[in-house]
Structures
1.
Amino acid sequence: MSQVRETIFVVDDDPSVREAFGNLLESVGFDARLFSSTEEFRSAQHPDVPSCLLLDLQLPGANGLDFQQALERAGISIPIIFVTAYGDVPSASRALRAGAIEFLMKPVQKHELLTAIEQALQHDRVQRVVRAEFLALKTRFDELTAREREVLHLVTNGLTNKEIADQLGISEVTTKMHRGQVMRKMNAASIADLVRMSDKLKFRALE
């Protein structure tokens, strides 16, 4: 079984630049996907593996900085490395503030480029783990009944079984049953664990 290779997408309107990047990336073991425009990139199939995007700043009919914002609005999460011959301080500042991993000037040195790519891939690896963990947590939360969600909210806000029972108009025995179900369904080892899970759910909901 062949190993899945990490993918580097290149969007640059200069064929010689695309070819040079493609040859370099393939020579060190990456899967290089080359595009002459942002439209080509958006319409292509993207493998579900750690990846990053080498993006030119000036493109026909498009601006790399605007495309960076468009990807964010579309919910497409991919680390971006700008590689350009026409960069300036304001452009670099805007790109980095918006989350770009690096802003490199052409001609870029091989070591400099590969170092930036490794930083971008490591960022993507970590984010993939975070997203997978949150999805598993959200799936467990969605399996709670409406009453169990109420109990979860009150437990993680520090209420005792008696206080929860009084607030919900149920017995302490029933409260303990719901609490046990919440702990089991959420796969929580302790109340502190349950609080951390609740905080993660609230934080992502605010994003």
Note: Residues 31 and 106 are 22 Å apart (CA to CA).
2.
Amino acid sequence: MKIVIIEDEILTAEDLRDDLTALNAGIEIIATLPTVNHAIEYFSSNSNYDLIFSDIQLGDGHAFDIFKKISVNAPIIFCSAYHEFTMEAFKNKGIDYIMKPFDRPTLAKALEKYHFLKEKLIPRQSDFRQLPDSSLPKVKKIQSLFVYQGDKILPLPVKNIVLFQLKNQVVRLYTLEGSDFPVFQSMEELESKLGPEFYRINRQFIVNRKVIKDVSRYFGRKLLLNLMFAFPEQLMISKEKTPHFLEWLAEN
């Protein structure tokens, strides 16, 4: 199996190479690409690879910048120290998302998932090259969340939720009617289950598109969200997430 590694930290790339080849003697690391530009150049003239392991934050941009310009011929296992890129990773041919620092058991599970998808979902194909993105497993989007109101447990339609906030290790949701309730799911779980009308703008907030009035430029090339209702805290988007956020905002 031929694997390409996209990683700008030399020691991490070497550790990943050593761990992968130790897990499977049949693995060949055919390229290690340290930057967005190196990756674009490589994939522009090479197509003989089976799997990609990719860091997300590189020295000259995000790995997603690569896949916006180049259509790769293999699935991708993304590696990151942050949860915030999960949704975008799975929109870019990602089949797994592993957290740094990773270990061999984690890598082994990721490889096992790759082989399962390859053998079970497309048994008549020799690789993923003809597998459309829509054929990859998708997380079912939720339509309601259960909330506690006194001694009752009530289903709350997701369409009535304007935003989620993580504060003091507790996730709360806010509704169109001005109510708020604790949510017994993590922001990562919610991010993976909510529909495309929701966007995780940073570690603390997931916002519904329909309550965004407009956005303003802010110091440090950040964006400030202006909502259609009063909220006591500022909702900021980092300069790194700005391009993807604006793309999402324009599509929904």
Note: The two ends are 39 Å apart (CA to CA).
3.
Amino acid sequence: MLITLRETLEAAIVVGIVLTFFSKTDQLHFRTHVWRGLTAGIFAALLLALILEMTFTGFEGPMEKLFEGILMFTTAGFITWMIMWVHRQKDVAQRIKEKVAYHVSKSYGLGISFLVAIAVWREGTETVLYLKSSSILEQSGQFIGAVLGIAAAVMLAYILFRFALRADLSVVFNVTSVFLIMFAAGLVAHGVHEFQELGIVPVFAFDPVVNFSHILSHESTFGSLLRTLFGYTATPTVLEIASYIAFVLGILWLKRLTDTVLLKAAR
């Protein structure tokens, strides 16, 4: 739910800004290009989901573990890029309006469709990768959560643009970023686990398996929730724990470095 809420809201905000621009400038005839772009973006994301599903189910044994490991690291990379991209955006609404105004001035309806399609496809692609990665960890309840997240995001976006309510979206993105960072760290740790099983990443002699089963099993109700959200496992290796902590610290360092660079640029 958190994943689809975040990604759908980002896509809906882009579409809402573009539609609002056309409404304010009395150029409603351009809305057709927005809907075309929205449809194309959704279709491209669904096509990726279909290809990923067909490809994934075709793997067995070691190849399946290798694919899972690669998917985990790829998704964690996407999450890192997305979090840092959002963190750097200060005037994203103004930038979108400027791009739309440029295409309108040139009468490039196709440019507007392409702009919307890329924005929607980007969020859709991230959603597909996130959900696929989380389904490897835990299957139950994913569809219901995904639908609830999409519905909540669409409703929130509609309220924002229909009734012009002011909301501090940075709070929403900051809170969900915390969950996504921990979710990505869990994917990295799980990817390390898959590569250790394949022998690509060594399990050192001083790298015993830590057993938290006596505290909380990852197969219990609460444990499975933690496994889905944060990649929790009751028997992690020391290397998995180290990779989890290193990823979280790395993201925090990148965010701090970005703030420093932006502050210097502002001066």
Note: The radius of gyration is 21 Å.
4.
Amino acid sequence: MTILLTLFQIFLVLLLAPLSLGLVRKFKAFFQGRVGASIWLPYVCFATLLKKEMTISPVISFVFRLSPFLVLGTTVLLVCVLPLVSTVTIFASLSNFMMVAGVLAMGSLYLVLGALDAGGGFGGIGATREMTVSALSEVVIITVFASFAVAGNNAQISEMLSLGGSAIFSHPFLILSLIGLTLVALAENARYPVDNPATHLELTMVHEANILEYSGPYLAMMEYAATVKLTIFSLLIANFVYPVVLVQFTLLGALGIVFLTIIKLVVVMFFLALLESLMAKMRFYRLQEYFSLAFLIAVLGFFLTILYP
């Protein structure tokens, strides 16, 4: 049964990942007074990239070719470990928040190594910015999940979901931790105000500058990994607020969870699009203020959770 639940979670999250990107683009177009592209367009774009020929510089090493597989592999590992659809999976025991933070850091490291190996100027700029964002966000992630670990007396994220929903009112200070998690999720997924995911100006890019030298299937893997990562954070935040997941595989239960997962993505993408429509991108040299705010909120939630368990 756990094997079936694990496969179901992996299949569902990987299948719905492009839909989350299509939804946030559609909602942003709505707030901007445009019709916008179809929510299914990301599926077509990924399929098109997979069929295109790759253009690779002759000076690159195996690192450049290996990076897309490693970046995508780390996101798939997070899908296997985190309680996104079910808390009863084979890898649920590996959902220790320190390990999850380490996997996130590894994904950023592999992305940076691929960008540096290409030898391009923009890749170097993007790599520097990516490592800066990663270094500032990791401590916030650890602090946020440490609050849930203290409140639930368990370091596994799969067990922390019991603190969500109505149970969170017994630990009201965890709301601060959720706010901190939301702020760091925007940074980890290169969204406003940390980065502009739709920019075409290389000098302002963070994530996009790292994948500028990729094309064809490699670019599809990098873009798809970023989309899966966005879906992971969206479902994780939604599950902390409304923790309804599958614990026993039945046909009716699976259909209900599929519907509920889509609803969660629609709601989260709506608020993400609304948030991005109300703010502008921050200057890179002011990001320390953003992360300082996220860290202070997370630390405040952590200490209040300790003082008032």
Note: The chain has a mean pLDDT of 91.
